[in-house]
Design a protein that fits this description.
single chain; 496 residues; alpha+beta; Nucleotidyltransferase, domain 5; 2 domains; 5-stranded mixed β-sheet; 37% helix
Amino acid sequence: MEKYLLSVDNGGTYIKAVILNTKGEQIALAKDKNCIEHPGPNMATVDQEKMWQIDCSLIKEVLKESRINPSQIACVGFAGQGKGLYTVDKDGKSFMLGRTSSDSRAKSYADLWKNDGTDEKLYSKIYQVASGGKPHSILRQIKDNDRDNYDRIAYVFSMKDFLVYRMTGNPIGGMSAMSGTNLVNLDTKQYDKSLFEAYGIEEMFDKMPPLKFDYELAGYVSKEASLQCGLDEGTPVSCGMFDVNASAIAMGVTNDEPVIIITGTHGINAYLSEKPVGNGTVKLNSIYPVDGYYQIEEGYPASSGSLEWVLDRLYGSEHGDIYDEVNKLVESVDPAASKVMFMPYFSGWRDDKKASACFFGLKSEHNNAHMLRAVYEGVVFSHCLQIDHLLANRPKPDKFLMAGGATNSAVWVQMFADVLQTAIQLVPAEEMGAKGVAIMSSVTAGIYQNVDEAVRAMCRPGEIVLPNPDKAEVYQDKLNNYKKMMEAMTDLWRLF
């Protein structure tokens, strides 16, 4: 009887349940909107139980659509956003809303730890800095403002670890997800009590779930979960992955050669290293789910998702599929003929939360084509600034691996290649988060012996796009001007 793998990817906009075969081929997909809400300023909350019910409903739906018997599911796994905070009480019940990493109510604590030297003091253990969307900051904010709920916390989870708990009843902390929380010592790969004490949340040290690597067995589908989602009781459940690592695994990254670019709402640029980068030039080091490697990452929500906002304003929110037209418009403008510039910073920027999105250089003779070219270029330039931080610590690769929304546009991919003056190897368009989890689950289920073997069996390389040397000078000039505008705007952004 043929076996299959079922993954549920809980993204910022959609939740997707996907069934794949052991060759990594997608068999069926079901999706629905996630239940992330923004009920007030700086808030991004999740009804944890509602999210779980959506996951269960989608599992039932994808099983029905695929006509695959639940007994054929070799393993199930979850992907979810990293960071944020999800909790249960001593009875295993949700009692307060979860928070995603976009919730910035705890930003003042991150600012405090940056200014009082805490970040610098702890850096040699965690190789990252404080952030308002990470659990250490959120927990401290709850402790100071909602002590009753703080004291009710029995377990601290990431998004996908909460879902694993609901599926199995077993509390686990995925190593890669937890390593980005400021609560794990990246050298010892263990929770470090001194970190909890430094952040003033020492009560939480004993509330952390046991750490497990992503390819390990988390447990089995419980009787209660079986009744809710339609999977057989006793089906193995992998520890799952946070979405960035899941995408990297789906891109076939298992060694330190490639540099990856993932475009979407949140742009990600990363590579693997046998040691963390400890000089402070990158924003995040985390433990990668391939033994012996750390993921060195630069990322920010300033990527291809910005195009949707612009299209909604130029063409209306019901614009439909106009992407072929958009590509033609972008291509119709010679890069040397337009100096219109766009900065995609709807959620701030890497080093400046006050940064905002804006067009520069618009004149009466400009039209939609000029604005759309500026959006494409601005997203590429934003990625380039982050890639600069990565390449300060390693040689430039022979090619970049690229996935995500921008890869659906040949024009946009060519622009990345021309600006970087480096070949771009595309990763075949598919549900990256779900596939990455399926690769891990295949190891959990014993289908493959290790992650390397699973990647070789389930991943396929895509097309290579070569740079045009004739475009190097014009794009270098435009990138330099973009950097100058970024410097010039530092003070002006404070006016908005």
